[in-house]
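README: folding subset

This subset contains proteins for which both the sequence and a predicted structure token string are available. Records are stored as plain text. Below is the entry for Torsin (332 residues), shown exactly as it appears on disk.
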Amino acid sequence: MKATYKAYFVYYVLISSVFVNAFEPISTTFVVGLGVAAVGRKIYNYVYESCDSKWIAFNSTGLEVALDRKLFGQHVASRVIQKAVTGFMNNKNPKKPLVLSLHGWTGTGKNFVSQLIAENLYKEGMASSFIHQFVSTAHFPHLSQIENYKSQLQQWVKGNVTNCPRSMFIFDEMDKMHPGLIDCIKPYLDYYENLDGVSYRQAIFIFLSNAGGEYITQVALDFWKAGRDREEIKLQHLEPALTLSVFNSKQSGLWHTSLIDKNLVDFFIPFLPLEYRHVLLCGMAEMSAKGLEPDQDVVDQMARELVYFPKSDKIFSVNGCKTIGGKLDYYT
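--- output ---
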């Protein structure tokens, strides 16, 4: 919010204080004071983000439209995320928090999806004070400090859910997290009504990881070699083996984790590798986002100079759509 609005708020409180003190009788001062306090709270909630329906309101249609128009080449992820988030938000009495684990190569849209969810749940989007993002290499870099990290993470989750039950926690680079660390939050993801008086059932936890990317790519490649449309790929073609792959991968922060062993992750969501046609769509969308007139020739030139794999067929973009913003700056 703009600083001027906050200044008005402070000014109003000061004026209100003078107004209250102008009355002599204690009873009158008390009654007026209560009224001023109530109005003051309303103004405060208008100016400053609060954990209420003014600042947190799920827009199911908005999420559906955003996934359909902005997320390219991810029909499986789009469908699962829309249903999972909508179902959870419409449930007035969930039995546990929503836990999503997003998997796939870099640049396929995992972080972007987290952003879309945030934008359609919190008025402030990713800038909301109720969204908490952790990056493994930045927040948990040292194996020797893992016990301290566990304690800090538990305190952070508990403190923020206490402050706002509808908090969202995003854990990026799960494939780089030290195995065993994430297990410290297992109690908060379980089916407990509350722990020490705090209920975690309205919170959302999202894990982002490159782990399982090889398996997902192989399935997509097999479909391509068999002449099958990639839109035929369904969640059941990927999720069971993906779950097992992540659980058994020592390069994953979810290696042998109790979160999987106890079935606390609601969905393992695969993000497919992106083809040339998807890169074109990303490029056109990026030009629009930059305020430029989308130019098919410019985007095509940029897309052709990206690296694709496998070398023999050059089907999938190595970096997905991740580097497109910078590349377009060069071509425009």
